[in-house]
Amino acid sequence: MTTALILLPLLGAVLVWVAPVPRGVLAPFAFLVALTEVALWITVVGRFDFGAGGLQLDQRTSWFGDLSVSYHVGLYGFSLWLAGLTAVVAAAAIGYACWAGRERPRAYFGLLLFLLGATVGVFTAQDLLVFYVFFEAMLIPLYVLVGVWGGPRRVAATIKLIVYTMAGSLLMLASIVVF
Prior knowledge:
9% strand, 2 strands
């Protein structure tokens, strides 16, 4: 279930980017994917045992046995609510964008869905390398969304975002290597 929460918006983003559909269908499709993500999260909440502590609904797949690196995602109580908040806010943002209209909707809605999937991946990651990959993947759509659809000072904001997150990302990567 946790992997489905991550993959649903990522697959939706890929479909928005590559499916040969008219522009008028992109926004409702993206909104439908976001609403499906919220419904899937509600299903996960129904399966979550709030009385039991610890990690639940986890999935682990070993990637490199010698390096002890694995795809490991799961939900704690707090990460369940963070993933849900992410899904609800993304659905609201996509719904608003459907109503307001955006230029280049294929790129805009695809990036929002990709951002949703990567952010849920950050909140559910249980392996340090998986967390780092999702964190870096989350920054890519942020750069583009701020740089293209931001306000009047979007270029300055994008440069600051890149500089600050690059410094933090390099420090985090160095910490991961040392760890």
